Amino acid sequence: MTLKINYLDKQKAFTKNTALFLCKETKISEFKGIFDDKTNTKIQKFIKNSKKIKEDKIVSLNLDFDQKILIIFLAHKNDSYQSEKNGAKLYAQIKSNKIDDISILGSNFSSIKNKIEFNQFLHGMELKAYEFNLYKSKKVKNNINIQVVKNKNEINKNTKLKLDAILEGVNFTKDLVSEPGNILHPDEYANRLAKLKKIGLKITIYDEKKLKKLGCNALLGVGQGSIRGSYLVTMEWNGSKSKSNPLAFVGKGVCFDTGGISLKPARFMEDMTYDMAGSAVVVGLMKNFALRKAKINAVGVVGLVENMPGGNAQRPGDIVKSYSGKTIEVLNTDAEGRLVLADALTYTEKKFKPKLIVDLATLTGAIVVALGSEYAGLFSNDDKLSKQLFEAGEKVDEKVWRLPLHKNYNKLMDSKNADMQNINYVGGAGSTTAAQFLERFILNKTPWAHLDIAGMAFSKYAGALNSGGATGYGVRLLNKFVEENYE
Fold first, then answer.
1. Is 104:147 a contact under the CB 8 Å cutoff?
2. Whether 192 is catalytic
3. What's residue 138's pLDDT?
4. CATH of segment(s) 162-486
């Protein structure tokens, strides 16, 4: 099902189904010449009774068995995110009512003085409309046609460009996360990233031969049981006129995670296609920067591997030397994402000397136990960076919650046989000790934040702005973080 949005001016005819906005200040005169007297009377009665209706609720007025007016009753103050949620609600109602044509009276968006919020209302509809049905043999051909009764010149073009870029980035992230493991293996993933050159990103792909030469043995160890290749891919965007050091975003890209020799239980293993969601967020974010010509310098770095129990697979008890020079005893091959990130983080810091590093990973089940699907876990060595991420998350409802790092947790990752081990065998604090492991690979005290998105990247239920499945969580959060603090 696809969503098509067209613009009409007030004078042109529009569809029989209509959506309009009401608030406490709305006057019936706003609809003069649009509806007939009978319909206007119905709307007038609704306005009189609107004090009993909850704000930001959508109510349906049935004019006929196949003709509806969907009324969005707005709060007096409507922020950008609430506008997006209202748009998503309207799309869900249109879909559930099997409406294929509807006109939205944008000209009476009277409780919102700023045109930006109307753009974001439509943006919410578009976000909610995402579906992944690439592999269904019977294609659903239904389109939902939206006629926006509002002069297109009234739409803020710069804002629309930015929102369209975010939509592209979020949907690209969702597409990547939704792909099955037999399609989006590391070889195919690297090929798809190479194609992003055409939108202005500088793409560099390090294959196994180059990674061996660099000494990225922590990353390579994870993928050595797979017939597929292992890769480190960098994506550079230089949108600032200054030659300032970039912002860096690093993502875990385990395209399928069986657990390796430390094999996972069979139940729900099919969900391990989304163990590359951290990398997908970085890719979607970088695509968004390029499309909207963000005035920043940024680099995205992703480690792409497949964790399989092959004849050449890494064994529990193996010791590998990371790119940093530090050695790691691999006690559990299912704690593999941190091995991928270890090399990616140190490489990013040494190569690009960034202002800051934010990494994202579906890293631990423990974070789901702690925070469920409401917050991503945030771990950081920098209070300012943590505050910026928290505030950005609150504004777009992609929330983060800071959890502690401490030297006593750090000791739990010490190994008798190597510089460190990849799991904490004492037990407890699984997400924190994983973050402590990662912090050891930030060598030059670069401001760093780790986002554990295991509970946020994929949902079996629909959310406010998504229809279930891959959520795209993180793209909007980090875009807002960059917009408000670094552009």
1. yes
2. no
3. 80
4. 3.40.630.10
